[in-house]
Amino acid sequence: MPQTITFEQSRRVDQVALEQYGMDGLVLMENAGSSAARRIAQLHPGASVLVLCGKGNNGGDGYVIARHLQLLRCDVHLLATATPDELSGDAAVNARIAARSEMPITFVKSADDPDIQAAMDAADVIVDCLLGTGVSGSLRSPFQDIVALANAAAAVRIAIDVPTGWPAVQAETSIDAIAFVADRTLTFVAVKEGMNESDADRWTGVVEVIGIGVPKKLLDDLEIPTA
Ligand SMILES: NC(=O)C1=CN([C@@H]2O[C@H](COP(=O)(O)OP(=O)(O)OC[C@H]3O[C@@H](n4cnc5c(N)ncnc54)[C@H](O)[C@@H]3O)[C@@H](O)[C@H]2O)[C@@H](O)CC1
Ligand SMILES: [K+]
Predict the structure, then answer these.
(1) Do 184 and 158 touch, CB atoms closer than 8 A?
(2) CA spacing 20 to 30 A to 109: which of 6, 77, 90, 223?
């Protein structure tokens, strides 16, 4: 397993790309999401894919992934914890594009909405873009319920950047602690700290790194391990 980076280092990469290199956050999100979608379509050509989207930039990645998966001839459905008007920044831009493209989107009003279970049952692949490096602590409602339903589904599970609810669950002793149990994690820039610990693959599954197109000099200067 290669060297790892902390969540803080990961956020620093984005910050330096934006502030010092003048890159646009939308470009980083597009690079991240389009590359992840290509990998998902390569692994599961023509699959029915359910993309779970949260409120932050990890959710934003999900809207990009969904748009590219449609172009790559997958059958895509979105399950979102917030409407585009409740989002901000790059995530809001991509959520609006998805809505204007008339992609099928189920907005979660309550965790026991039967549409959630139906969407999970119809999926060959569930892609987790609920929470990424912005997570803090154990999952709050409705995330625990959505994650529990996803974990019980027959579909293949793919986490984007980090499995939602991890790494808090790894240190958690409470029996209520829960995290997305992925068959595969497509993580951005570099493997995240903790993913190389012996029991982490219970949640991450196979870990693959996806580049987001930031300059090599930036990665070298921040001492970010590259493959
Ligand atoms: N320009 C960028 O910053 C880029 C970010 N990227 C993506 O952005 C992600 C980070 O995005 P954000 O910083 O917006 O954070 P997240 O998308 O991980 O989540 C932030 C949201 O989660 C909520 N939250 C935090 N802990 C919670 C908990 N325990 N239970 C329920 N809700 C909780 C917060 O209130 C906030 O609304 C990365 O993981 C990556 O996927 C990529 O798009 C690449 C570019
Ligand atoms: K995630």
Answers:
(1) yes
(2) 90
